[in-house]
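Our preliminary data section would be incomplete without showing what the modeling component actually yields. Below, a chain of 474 amino acids is followed by its predicted structure, encoded as tokens that our downstream tools consume directly.
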Amino acid sequence: MKKILTIELVGILILSGFGAYAIPIRNPSIQQSSKLNEYDMVIIAPEFFSESLQKLIEHKNSVGIRTFLKHVEEIYDEYQGYDDAEQIKYFIKDAIESYGIEYVLLVGGRKGQSLKWYIPVRYTNNKYHVADSDFYHKKFISDLYFADIYKQNDEFEDWDSDSDGIFAEWTDDGRPDDSLDLIPDVYLGRLPCRYKNEVSIIVDKIIRYENTVYGQEWLNDILLVGGDSFPGIGEPFPYEGEVSCEWILNYLEGFNPTRLYCSYGTLTGSNDFISAFNKGNGFVLYHGHGKQNSLHTYHPDSRDVINVFNPNSLNRIHNEDRLPVMVVGCCLTTDFDVGILNFLNILKNYNKYVNFFDFIEGCVSECLGWNMVKKSDGGSIAYIGGTSTGYLVPGDNNHDDIPDVAQMGYTTGLCDEFFRVYGIDGKRILGEIYCDTLASIIKNQSAQTNRGQCKCVQEFLLIGDPSLKIGGYP
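Predicted structure:
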């Protein structure tokens, strides 16, 4: 029996034998408008952010991504639905069928440090246990909800097939209580901005990146960071984080790797990570453990912790405009449903949390992923990772000399497939790579019926612009 493990920052993995699998953008013939194919992308944001977004809209139109802005307040006035999130989803459906859009950018997270939202989230109800432990979220954010518009029969996909108001629900014995399609129908990402200045910062970063980085040598550099995620197991590939990182080089011809591996002695603490990060890289891949605002792993065959990144590390990140796409196989670092007032959430939304420790972890001002993307003097141009607990399969259970972390799906498989889509399929638009990755894992690992695969797909979230051209425009 394969052993599935929880990792608080899981790694990259390859799903051996996977072929190219682009997501089908489904535009049903019904209700199509004469304006079909008039736009490529819609930005959904509160009116409060409108002025700060104008430069981005102008820039996107100038590079051929025909873009318009839709205020979330207008959506609430014009569309019906079970709640705010479903009203937005109905608008996205209408935008696909009326305008032919392929990209959706959600701009907005919490309103400051309050518990209210500029752009709401959808909580799933897939509490997946792999061990007798209560350190797991009962609920977690899934922006895939907003991208999975249609069922296979082209009906609206509400993630609530039994109409009980509980979304993406699984039974205690591991059966789907809601029938889920999961396949994304638009390329979707989110910038969970809380303040106007954050909108201005990321808009300027996107424009500078797409306008200025083309052809620069550092784009072919990749930083690989990993250690022994689960000491004492996993033979014949005992250092899960390292082997997960190393495997993706099979896809990246011509890339120059910097390996921060515990077994090499090149990863001894946060100083190593910060120094290598600040040199600038096209991509950063990390495998190990993490919380909402920190990363850590283990020394080989030891429970001695190596702290890779903590809240104090952020002030030491100064890579300026050498901005990577950062991919992490891990838990929680894209969980932007955090805030210093989250202790009030125990009263309002107590059933999201399992226990006190799980609850306390959410009482931080921002998650690591958003901190990296919104950083004004560096950080990353995009960040992809888990909003909840990640999983991997260690070892080589089928004895094919391929590490199972690179073959069996789950969180590590998502990371690996991302780089296969980039390196082998040759995709260069961020949202297309991301959503094709989701679709491939869903299809090849039967995520609709496998609770663990389903959870990993639902929580794998893109903080960034889905229309971003990786490597910029010439």
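The mean pLDDT is 88. Residues 5-24+212-463 form a domain with the Rossmann fold fold (CATH 3.40.50.1460). Preliminary results of this kind motivate Aim 1 of the renewal.
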